[in-house]
User: Which sequence fits this backbone?
């Protein structure tokens, strides 16, 4: 492949090979092989570059990007595009989940207001407040069930680059 600058970049940060391996998620032996001049996959190079916080092209000693192998030349752009797509999908998924919990809260608040009005008008007894509490407890459990077992797989198919996260209700704003 091309001559690597990984050891130089690692030393500039004061890192050991073990620290770079930990930060990049690759094996120490892989770091040793790369620094020894062996080839690596583009995924491994991308992980090392992310850990060192440099573009992939800076891992190589060539001054002219045209001298780099074709797979390496476009890797930074493809990595950035993939990260942007994943962030966009995650944001869309988080908006959906936040909206789900906002709807749950809005229904609960409306139910509580209607309950208070019916109590003031002496239509229901004060035991109806148990229903309001039950709505919040059972609704939360049912909502979690729906998100985990029903909507979760659909969201995974709809936005495959996203992952399930706990989105607080206020994130829907």
Assistant:
């Amino acid at each position: 492949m091309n001559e690597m600058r990984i050891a130089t970049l690692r030393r500039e940060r004061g890192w050991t090979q073990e620290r770079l391996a930990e930060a990049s998620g690759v094996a120490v032996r892989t770091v040793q092989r790369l620094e020894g001049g062996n080839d690596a996959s583009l995924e491994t190079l991308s992980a090392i570059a992310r850990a060192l916080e440099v573009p992939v092209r800076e891992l190589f000693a060539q001054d002219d990007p045209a001298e780099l192998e074709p797979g390496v030349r476009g890797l930074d752009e493809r990595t950035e595009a993939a990260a942007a797509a994943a962030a966009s999908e995650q944001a869309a998924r988080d908006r959906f989940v936040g909206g789900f919990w906002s709807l749950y809260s809005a229904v609960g608040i409306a139910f509580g207001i209607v309950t208070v009005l019916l109590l003031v008008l002496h239509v229901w007894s004060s035991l109806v407040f148990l229903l309001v509490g039950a709505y919040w407890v059972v609704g939360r459990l049912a909502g979690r069930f729906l998100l985990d077992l029903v909507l979760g797989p659909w969201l995974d198919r709809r936005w495959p680059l996203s992952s399930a996260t706990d989105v607080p209700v206020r994130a829907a704003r």
About this structure: Confidence is low (pLDDT under 50) at residues 169-173. The helical segments are 6-12, 17-24, 28-35, 42-52, 70-73, 75-120, 129-158.
